Every structure is written in C-alpha cells, then in structure tokens.
C-alpha cells in the first residue's frame, strides 16, 4: 500500500473534511479524493460518507482507523532504520516513562555512548500508554517502564525494585498528616495497598506525575509517597525527612522490548541497562 494513502485517510479523519485535509496536505482536493478512491478500491470497502458538514467514517473506515496509524509509524520507523549514520552498524530507539528519564534513562544513554559506539541512538520519553504501544509496534526497540501490561509479542525483564516511601518537609512528623498530604497516583497496585494501610485517608490534592508532585512538595511544603531514588538527595540535604515506621511499597522497574527485536543490537544494550540499574540502586 502507498503510505500516502494511509496518511491522507488519517488527515481526513483528523480534520473531518476532504477540503481541510487537502489544505493541510498542501495538495488539490481532487488529489485527496483520488487517493481515497484508490484506497477504497484496494480494500474493497467504502471508508467515508461525505455530507455537507464534511465526511464521516463508515464501519469499514472505523476498522481501518485502528490500523492506519500503525502503517504510517512502521514506515517512518523503517526510514529511520535504513538511514543508519556513517560509521554505525545500526540504529537503536530507546525510551522511558517521564519519571524514569532521570537518572536511569540518562545514565543508560551515557553508558551506551561509551560502550556501544557502533550504535546510533534515538531517545524517546512518553506516557506509559503510548510507550507500550510504540514498543509493540516496533517504533521503540527497548523501553524502561513501571508495571507494563503483558501482551503477546513483548518480552519483559525485571530491572530493579524501587521503594515508595513517605517523606515530609516537617522533621517532627510521625504520622501521615492529611492536612498537607499530597497523593501521588502510582497506579492500581499502589492505590490498593495505600487504601488498605490508610483506609480513612481522603487527600484533597493529587497528582499523576511523580516529578511534578515532588516539585510541589519541595516548593510549598507537605508530604507524600515518592520513589526512594528520587528523594534520597533531598533527604541527605535535609530538605525532606522520612516519616518513621510508615509502610513502604514496592514499585518494580522493567525493561520492555518486542520479541522480534534484533538481538544483536538490543541484547548488548539490555545487558548494559541491567548493569546501570544495578549501579544506580546502590547509590
């Protein structure tokens, strides 16, 4: 399939109109119409219903929409992989969730630049839902994630066991103080265990991004559960304090790759990631 056909289809869905799609693609409307006719002939199904307000998807179009972005992404991925820079044998795209970018992803990239000098790197940071899809589709070769969902065609390796600990800016605190408590949503497992340990807690401020929640606590004051590796420097500097005898929760970190990834490239990178993760957790 001509990838331009899929791109044109996505643009019409995005804009809701053949006319607006032609403007965005900088081609004539007749070209857009011809591409869609070609695509519909190849698929043997009508994809759009055109009306005064623009265009809407048919049931077949709804189904094709599930796959069209993948076609475009895989083509872009192929272009990246073919365009190996001079002096390099392959291109490796690595990624992580935002909260794992520093220090783990950064330390891993540093290691690869020193130890895998024949590999060109592309580094990507994204939200978990998109990141796991990118690994599954081949857009990202190897990613660092918390609690990745198990899917056919993915290989998942445990890297390290993080600890979520209760810290506060108040050095005298001995309990979870709801008046200044910031609830950080670390996912369903944390929600379950947090509820079991603090059944009456009803925090009125919550975040779903760890670095942002931690920055708030450091700037405004308060308490919350955070990764030990991220709060350790602030504990040592006296900006934060561990609340004694409070429960700690496990928060494992995983490496995720496609089962079809090139092991000659991904294998050494994964071995280096394990080494870096082991060194980081000892710091």
TrEMBL record:
Keyword Amino-acid biosynthesis listed: no
Keyword Transcription belongs to the record: yes
PROSITE patterns xref list: HTH_LYSR (PS50931)
Gene Ontology terms for molecular function: DNA binding; DNA-binding transcription factor activity
All copies of domain HTH lysR-type, residue ranges: 1-58
This protein's UniProt keywords: DNA-binding, Transcription, Transcription regulation
Pfam families assigned: HTH_1 (PF00126), LysR_substrate (PF03466)
Family membership noted in the UniProt record: Belongs to the LysR transcriptional regulatory family.
Protein's UniProt name: HTH-type transcriptional regulator
UniProt source species: Mesorhizobium prunaredense
């Amino acid at each position: 399939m001509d990838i331009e056909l899929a791109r044109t289809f996505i643009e019409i869905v995005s804009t809701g109109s053949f006319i607006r799609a032609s403007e965005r693609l900088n081609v004539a409307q007749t070209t857009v119409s011809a591409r869609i006719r070609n695509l519909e002939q190849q698929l043997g199904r009508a994809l759009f219903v055109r009306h005064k307000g623009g265009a809407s998807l048919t049931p077949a179009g709804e189904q094709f929409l599930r796959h069209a972005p993948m076609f475009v992404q895989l083509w872009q991925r192929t272009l990246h992989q073919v365009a190996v820079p001079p002096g390099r044998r392959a291109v490796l795209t690595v990624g992580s969730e935002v909260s794992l970018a520093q220090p783990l992803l950064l330390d891993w990239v540093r290691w690869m630049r020193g130890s895998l000098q024949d590999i060109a790197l592309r580094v990507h940071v994204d939200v978990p839902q998109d990141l796991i899809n990118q690994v599954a589709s081949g857009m990202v070769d190897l990613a660092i994630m918390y609690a990745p969902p198990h899917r056919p065609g993915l290989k998942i390796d445990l890297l390290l066991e993080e600890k979520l600990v209760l810290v506060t800016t108040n050095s005298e605190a001995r309990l979870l103080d709801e008046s200044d408590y910031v609830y950080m949503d670390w996912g369903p497992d944390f929600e379950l265990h947090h509820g079991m340990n603090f059944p009456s807690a009803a925090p009125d401020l919550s975040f779903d991004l760890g670095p942002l929640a931690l920055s708030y606590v450091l700037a405004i004051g308060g308490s919350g559960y955070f990764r030990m590796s991220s709060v350790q420097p602030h504990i040592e500097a006296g900006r934060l304090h561990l609340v004694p005898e409070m429960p700690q929760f496990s928060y494992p970190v995983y490496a995720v790759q496609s089962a079809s990834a090139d092991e000659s490239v991904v294998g050494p990178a994964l071995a280096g990631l394990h080494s870096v993760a082991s060194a980081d957790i000892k710091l």
